[in-house]
Prior knowledge:
By secondary structure, the chain is mainly beta. The chain has two domains: 2-64; 94-119 and 171-459, Beta Barrel (Porin), CATH 2.40.160. It has three helices and 20 strands. It has helices spanning 2-27, 30-67, 173-176, and strands at 70-73, 78-81, 88-103, 113-127, 131-138, 146-157, 160-168, 197-207, 212-219, 238-245, 259-272, 280-281, 287-289, 296-312, 315-329, 337-351, 377-388, 406-417, 422-434, 449-459.
Amino acid sequence: MRNFTVISRAVVVVAVFSTNFIPALRADTNEDIQALRAQIQQLDQQLRILERKQEIKDEESAAAAKAAPKIAITDKSFTFASGDGADSVRIGGLVQLDSRLFFNDGGGVLNNTFVLRRARPIVDGTFDKIYSFQFVSEFGGTSTPSILDANFGVGLSDALQFKFGKFKTPVGLEWLQSDSWTFFDERSLVTDLMGNRDLGIQASGKFDGGVVTYAAGIFNGVPDSTNSSNADFDNDKDVIGRLYLQPFKNDQASVLQGLAFGVGSSLGREKGALAVTSGYKTDGQQTFFKYRSTVVGDGQVWRVSPQAEYRNGPFGAIAEYVVSTVNVRPAAGKPKARLENKAWELSAGYVLTGENSSYTGVVPNHSFNWQNGTWGAWEVAVRYADLKIDPKAFPTFADPTINADEARSTGLGLNWYLSKTVKTTFDVYDTRFSNLVPVSATQILRQDEKAFITRFQISF
């Protein structure tokens, strides 16, 4: 624009000089010189008007380009955003198809099957860079379609953010990890003792770039391994919180940079039949323990879960312990007892192709491409987990002939990350049960569970 102005003015001056000024010199009269000056000033004014019009047009074009909506389609999501980035909507999804094979199950008691484990449309976004929302529905699994997450948030700063609605309760380390990126296709026995998604209000945040992370809130309260409905089943509420520390996160040279640890807990009171878990499940999603149908909750409930994680290059590990305490009655009006069920797990993975292990998943350096001869990322994983039922649960609160009092699970896994979006897993599980008395011949617990589960997943 500046070059255009300079050149234009030069052209005007030359033209004026060549057509008017030279003859005026010859005439050598004051009148001609004054007329020439007036003509030059008039042309200069006209040129300035043209320059300003061009500047306005350029400014309008820049403003229109800045305000124009932006559409981004990547291998992770479809995003629609305003020109300034203040408002955006992201559309994603998760689909998991599992193949379950059970071995030595005593004549086909367990069902070898394909399962649409998860089928979730995911929509989230932000408004004015402060407000956010999330909506996740579920069309997979064995239950009817449901709403998993429906919440909105207000982010005042990194240190203080609020969330309202239905979402994961902040207790377990493995539970809070995305369903797409756990070491194994099913979470460990530890998550059986966690409350799942619940309705409530939560404050959370992080300090010093994530060295300290916290979350605390008030929720309706749900029993172990249960999602909330759209309303509470009693008048009492649970207080839930979690503190997580990564003290060496900002120390790039330390071997402890990837070390993190913390504790999550919940405390409340729950009453009624809906305050009791519907059952604890194995890696193969078989129920190995549930209370008698007459049992009701009545009293204080609490959980505590110390947890730790370590990541160093291609290596990653998670350790977690949980105690879940309930007060229950064998039937309404009967004497109640306090039961403490406990579980722990240790899992680890190593990325054979050298990519970094991460809580948010492995990103291949080179996605799978048959023609180019690239094979994505490969990871091996191992896990041991144990869950013990309080001995006081038998026989008053649970039938020992159809329930195990302990489950011990060993898992070996191979994960193939074909791209950022596509993943395949191959997992072998061996779950051994401890039974107080011989179980019924018609029950799955009459032998240990040996399962081979393969998953085909797309997550974006």
